[in-house]
Amino acid sequence: MSDTTTTLTDKLAVVETLYRYAAGLDLRDKDLLSSAFAEGGVADFGPATRKAGHEYPPIEGRETIATALLASLDHLDTTHSVSNPRVSIDGDTAHLEGIVACQHLPKGDHSRHVLMTNRYDVDLARSGDVWVISRVTVDNAWTEGDPTVLAGI
Question: What residue numbers bound the domain in which 39 lies?
Fold first, then answer.
């Protein structure tokens, strides 16, 4: 395989990691969501939540992250759409910057919603044949709708 083909394959595999993450959230598939993270991965939503007036400390550990995220979305129907990925590869590490548009609707009441467009800053590491998130930091670009939907109000 040529270096160019290897680089392109790795870049696609890095983006696929964020697709696993988003699909795991929307499908409420803990195994799929967990597969996107390294064992000691960190998810930091602090920059986004501070803009909403809340403190949300970083979450550490693959299983802890998956459990916390799925619990926080339990009362919602969601769609997370990944776009504009930019990937750089350096050996067995990678960096991805992208946009994730996140639609949230209360289960059973789709008359209300909150749509958030977030910037994702992601560090990844190669783990066998796949890439996993070692750290993701999420910052909110903008929000539209009723933010109380997130709190289950």
Answer: 3-151
Under DSSP, is residue 149 helix (H, G, I), strand (E, B) or coil?
helix
Q: How many domains does the chain have?
A: 1
Whether 124 contacts 92, CB under 8 Å: no
Strand partners, 106: 76
- Is residue 79 within 8 A of residue 104, CB to CB? The reply is no
**C-alpha closest to that of 92 among 134, 153, 61:** 134
Please report, as a single letter, which amino acid is at residue 46: G
What pLDDT digit, counting tens, does each position of 114-134 carry? 999 999 999 999 999 999 999
- HSE-CB at 7 with a 13 A cutoff on CA atoms is 8
Q: What is the pTM of this model?
A: 0.93
Only one residue has tokens 């960190």, namely 42
- What is the C-alpha to C-alpha distance for residues 80 and 35, in angstroms, rounded to an integer? 17
Specify the CATH number for the domain of residue 105.
3.10.450.50
Give the Cα separation of 96 and 14 in Å (integer).
7
Contact 78, 104 (CB under 8 A): yes
The token pair at 103 is 């639609």
